[in-house]
């Protein structure tokens, strides 16, 4: 019989605890370490991809555990390794699909061929900037980096997942509950933006039909729609971040702007332009 490592034993113990107590907390702690180490160490995925895999596990943890039990498997570490490998393969396919189909717009609805040298150069530069920003954030105070990433919905590193988990636990909240709510907030924001864009489109159609009669009225309507649209943001509010982290809104705001100013001061980002990093 193959001897179990300490890591295997901890993982099995966390699964047994879940089926005994109905609490997936211990399993999550072991699972995200396991998955991150596999994705980052063995398969060389970048931090954003590792974060996507960990997030998938956070959202589907209980389904994974019940799948193991329902199918009658006996070796959870082997089952979980295979499951994680499938997540890694799916993430890689997703990245390949995006790299093949991604198109860029210059703001005037002119699109570029993703196979062109121009597009490849821009995409390569974007990846370079992304890596640079992640590196700089990893050197910051963890709470500052966490606030900045929550604000802009940037994938968290493993260290930040752990920190955020500990903050949520103090409020008796689960990571899964946060992300389910966050996804719903993002969906509502997207739907509201879509609704306003459709209103703007109908406004332009009406202008064409009426040959720009009552132009001032059209301008007022357009301005009102754009003002409302501008108020609909995908970013998380300082107040909500503060509530989740157990901090005041003022403290979160101050830490956020300090982190942004630190990014702006970095010589590496000055060379490429901070607007690219943002």
Q: Uncertain runs with pLDDT below 50, 5 residues or more?
A: 102-125, 274-278
Mean pLDDT figure: 78
Strand content: under 5%
Helicity range: over 70%
Q: Profile the largest sheet.
A: none
Oligomer: single chain
Category from helices, strands and their pairing: mainly alpha
Assign an overall shape.
elongated
**Rg from alpha-carbon coordinates:** 23 Å
Count every beta strand, where a strand is a DSSP E run of 2 or more residues.
0
Number of domains: 2
Order of helices and strands: HHHHHHHHHHHHH
Q: What is the number of helices?
A: 13
End-to-end distance, in Å? 53 Å
Topology:
Blueprint: H1 6-21, H2 25-42, H3 47-70, H4 76-101, H5 117-138, H6 142-152, H7 158-170, H8 175-209, H9 215-231, H10 238-245, H11 249-265, H12 267-272, H13 274-277
Helix pairs in contact: 1-2, 2-3, 2-4, 3-4, 3-8, 6-7, 6-11, 8-9, 10-11
Could you explain how this protein is built, in words?
The protein folds into two domains: 101 residues; 158 residues, no CATH class. It has 13 helices and no strands. The protein is mainly α. The chain is elongated.
